[in-house]
Amino acid sequence: AGRALLRRTVQRPSSFPPRITKRTESTRSAPPSSPPSHSAKPSSPSDVTTSIPGPSWLWLEPVFVPFRAYGRAQRKRPYWTQFFSSLTIYFCGDLSAQSIGEEDYDPKRALRAVTIGGIFSIPSYKWFLYLGEHFNYPSKALSLAVKVLVNQAAFTPLFNSYFFGMQSLLSGASLKEAWDRILHTVPVSWYNSCKLWPAVTAFSFTFVQP
At a CB cut-off of 8 Å and minimum separation 6, what does 195 contact? Predict the structure, then answer.
């Protein structure tokens, strides 16, 4: 009994070192957490994406400002806006036409052009409103084609006759001379207008609000 008790006493301490060793090894295996370093280098400029906030077309906003102002004026005072727009367009058109020729600038011709545009401004405006409200079919392509065809067949000959006839009369020509000029110029002008104005009319009825 004494020998067995002595053996137990001697062997018991030997059972502690493995546990201590394991606990020490587990403690050593976990590296100490290092504090956050404040000397980390900031990311390079190439790593940072810079962009303008908002839609990509926002830089075009200044271009739309005068068009929006014109639209507001058109809604508030459609007749006056149309009238003064016609005067401006006819004046610029005559100015560009006179700059092509070699003759000196003729202010009387510019005045005739402005007068012709001002007289026919509201009737032409009414015509295009009428054209936009009629000839509307389930097919948008068919509606657009009919509008272009009716405009080219009815409005263009009438307007060209008015334009060349008034030019002759305001220049001092007689009624017969004005009629002769209409007969000689309207067919040619109508044929040449087919090269451009159907596309302009189609664009207007597709993208421009009434």
Answer: none
Contact assessment for residue 192 and residue 164, using Cβ atoms and an 8 Å cutoff? no
CA–CA dist 77, 29 (Å, integer): 85
What digits encode the pLDDT tens for the residues 168-209? 999 999 999 999 999 999 999 999 999 999 999 999 999 988
Model pLDDT for residues 48-74, shown as the tens digit of each residue: 555 555 566 667 777 788 888 888 998
Instruction: Read off the DSSP letter of residue 136.
Output: -
Reading the block at residue 155, the tokens are: 């409005």
Q: How far apart are the first and last CA of the chain?
A: 118
Q: What would the pLDDT profile of 93-130 be if each residue is shown by its tens digit?
A: 999 988 987 788 889 999 999 999 999 999 999 999 99
Q: Taking the alpha carbons of 80, 84, 86, 89 in that order, is the dihedral positive or negative?
A: negative
Residue 106, Cα to own-chain centre: how many angstroms? Answer: 38
Q: How many residues does this entry show for the chain?
A: 210
Q: Are 178 and 165 in contact (CB under 8 A)?
A: yes
Q: Measured between alpha carbons, how far is 202 from 145 in angstroms, rounded to an integer?
A: 8
Cβ partners under 8 Å of residue 71, min gap 6? 209
123 token code pair: 């009737």
SS (H, E, C) 70-135: HHHHHHHCHHHHHHHHHHHHHHHHHHHHHHHCCCCCCHHHHHHHHHHHHHCHHHHHHHHHHHHHCC
Query: What DSSP element (H or E) covers 60?
Result: none
